[in-house]
Write a structure and sequence with these properties.
Strands 3, 13, 14, 15, 16, 17, 18, 19 and 20 form a 9-stranded mixed β-sheet that branches. The protein has 12 helices and 20 strands. It has 411 residues and is α/β, with parallel strands linked by helices. The protein is 30% helix and 26% strand. α5 crosses α6.
Length: 411
């Protein structure tokens, strides 16, 4: 098996397993696709990479070079972006509970936009701007009440969500008053994000229409950010909407609203993360022991929930193959289990595979989003290496954690 004409068995010998592998051409193709199709002649557009999906310096360098903007949700993600000289004016800072330290730092360095999640955060920003005598541009995150069909843990827009404010709520009205009284707070518009791994195009249209209705109250052009959540293909059960269709549809909805009403749009933004990196990423494992029980057959791998928590957290599903046996008859129905001391450390249940032998390599597909980002040192597991492949060449993006690094902060 090859990725970008690089043999994965060679990668195993060079970098070891578990190993995260990224196809650079696939990454760039996805970024360029959004930038190409998310365009309008009526207003500005901006495509932000949602870095929480995969935040390492190399992918941020690529996003910067491709001309994308960026969203970050923590000091750590912001710091990583700044270390690759990502333009500050193209960075949006999200989060429902930004610390005072984070807000002061973001405002002091002149970050592009802060997406304000709640009333108390706005009061903190009000105090900080006055203390520093620094202005800041903001969007208000709205809870538009559109509940997409997604896992309950990744739905972010129902009425009791921890994210955003409800339109015409007392908090919303008070936020507008705070903004009016402080000329250092530059109100630019609204943000919304309704969830993740969404297959229903109508959900995005409904959320955007809600934001467009709110803009009718304002007599100046607003920035509207519809967020992300665009689905990807994990298994054959998944039927994601192609990014060109998502992009064009959102543009059309906004342009139609401009024709029919007197609203004004300065800019429309989206924030794809998963749909840029997920399918460009793979995780490579070495199969160790195997076991049969009365009702199951297990293939044990040298990784697990420490490098991919999503099956345990969201019951996420994946496809896989045994390297070199992709075309062999898949006679076995097996559970791919990790090496953690947890019964829930299962990467794939009911995988159809050929008969395996100890030392075979197992590759899982579409692991480029939230694998490395959500990895952990549970059971003192070492964080795997991350390698990028392009045009037949490989290069290390993140080296494998060492045992000394594992305990270097312990005193």
């Amino acid at each position: 098996m090859e990725i970008s004409t690089v043999d994965v068995r060679y990668l195993k010998e060079k970098y070891g397993t578990p190993l995260y592998i990224y196809d650079v051409a696939h990454l760039k193709r996805n970024m360029e696709g959004y930038l190409k199709y998310f365009k309008s002649n009526e207003f500005e557009t901006e495509v932000l990479f949602a870095s929480k999906a995969f935040s390492v310096k190399e992918v941020l360098r690529i996003a910067k070079e491709e001309g994308m903007s960026l969203d970050v949700v923590s000091m750590g993600e912001l710091y990583t972006a700044l270390k690759v000289d990502f333009p500050k004016d193209r960075i949006y800072f999200h989060g429902n509970n930004k610390t005072i330290e984070e807000l002061e730092y973001a405002i002091s360095i002149g970050i592009g936009i802060i997406v304000v999640d709640n009333l108390m955060e706005l009061y903190a920003i009000d105090e900080i701007t006055k203390k520093l005598s620094k202005s800041i541009r903001i969007l208000i995150r709205m809870n538009v009440g559109v509940e997409a069909h997604t896992h309950k843990f990744i739905v972010t827009s129902h009425v009791d969500s921890k994210f955003g404010v409800l339109y015409n709520s007392e908090d919303y009205k008070e936020m507008l008053e705070v903004i009016k009284k402080n000329p250092l707070i530059k109100f630019k518009g609204f943000h919304s994000h309704i969830g993740s791994q969404i297959f229903d195009l109508n959900a995005f249209k409904a959320a955007l229409e809600k934001l467009l209705n709110i803009t009718k109250e304002f007599d100046f052009p607003l920035v509207l950010n519809i967020g992300g959540g665009f689905a990807v293909h994990y298994t054959d059960e998944d039927k994601p909407i192609p990014f060109d269709i998502v992009s064009k549809t959102l543009i059309e909805v906004a342009e139609e609203a401009l024709k029919k009403t007197n609203i004004k749009i300065e800019k429309l933004c989206i924030e794809p993360g998963r749909s840029i990196v997920a399918e460009a990423g793979y995780t490579l494992y070495t199969i160790g022991f195997m076991k049969k029980t009365p009702n199951k057959e297990y293939y044990f791998i040298d990784g697990g929930m420490t490098d991919n928590i999503r099956p345990a957290l969201y019951q996420a599903k994946y496809d896989c193959d045994i390297v070199g046996k992709e075309n062999e008859e898949k006679t076995e129905v097996v559970t791919i289990a990790g090496k953690c001391c947890e019964s829930g450390d299962l990467i794939i249940e009911g995988a159809r595979l050929p008969k395996a032998a100890i030392g075979d390599l197992l590759i899982t597909y579409t692991t480029g989003a939230y694998g490395y980002s959500m990895s952990s040192n549970y059971n003192k597991a070492l964080t795997p290496a991350v390698v990028f492949v392009e045009d037949g060449k490989d290069y290390l993006a993140v080296r494998r954690q060492t045992l000394d690094e594992l305990i270097e902060r312990e005193v």
